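Example 3.
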Amino acid sequence: MQCRTDLGLCVAFPPSPVTRSGTQKAAFVGSSWPAKMAAPAGKVARGWSVLALTLRTAVPRLPGLTQVRWSRYSPEYRDPQTDKEYYRKPLAELTEEEKCEQELRKTQLIKAAPAAKTSSVFEDPVISKFINMMMKGGNKVLARSLMTQTLEAVKRKQFEKYHAASAEEQATIERNPYTIFHQALKNCEPVIGLVPILRGGHFYQVPVPLPARRRRFLAMKWMLTECREKKHRRTLMPEKLSHELLEAFHNQGPVIKKKHDMHKMAEANRALAHYRWW
Amino acid sequence: MATPSLRGRLPRLGNPRKPILKPNKPLILANRVGERRRDKGEATCITEMSVMMACWKQNEFRDEACRKEIQDFFDCASRAEGARKMRSIQDTGESGNLPPMKLNKLLQRFPNKSHV
């Protein structure tokens, strides 16, 4: 099957030292495999027997070299697809590539999806990323509850405005907290970034185009930094965040100002753009 | 070619002669290789960037007024990124060795044990 060409990258690396025989566990005494590999015997045996079916050649034991870091998943494992729309597409609409992919999925090993990823209709990757960035010390429960309280606060504020407004204004007021969140973060994304480049012993701030994920990250980072540091100590996070999100939605507020400052600096340093080499 | 011998080269108590080598770092294989000398490229998307900045200057840095220029800049940046990726894939596919970044990742997984 040639449809998965991205596996080529994994195959180019020498795979983890797994021997073909699934039975001899004593053979691994000499190597540095961790104890946890021995525990789920059934699963490991299944993994080994499946690996025996792959077309990869056996890796010789490398004397003097021990593997120190690897994941539970060998390169055959594929990422889980939690998107329900992918599976609901009728057979006629699928292209050859997609049919091939779906066939492969039936037989190949798939990694476990992380706990925070669901196939629910309420799942939103931007919100999940924001919750992860808000999280401190692994306290996902607290971060998620803060996020829901923020969205509720945004909704309440917008509803108050809606009920207080006249008929023409009611049409312009946006009440869905998710659209407000997305639009606010989109408004906060910088278009161009600054990178310190060493030239002649001095660091110059050179304007540089940013990839999309860097822009989204910066927007979220600025929003969180603004709320955590520049506000009064006693105000709660949902209150601060909802206020900042609403201001960013209307293109006002300190986060938008920070984005504009970045743009202005880039504009001032536009002559230095030739210091880039990419 | 075999490694040149180290016998009697280092300043040690058991070595009667003058030392030949005086290494300032221990002679142990590191777990990384050096970067290859990359050829200097030049900056891409300068024209789009200057057009966008001229638009900003006229419209007081408002993004809604400069949508088209910003979109052009993003398109140019993604095209340059794609071209760079294609070039790096072609470059690394030709010679027999792995590129230094991938080699370093591999060496991190199979490090040289300099301790007991």
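Residues 1-58 of chain A have pLDDT under 50 and may be disordered. The radius of gyration of chain A is 26 Å.
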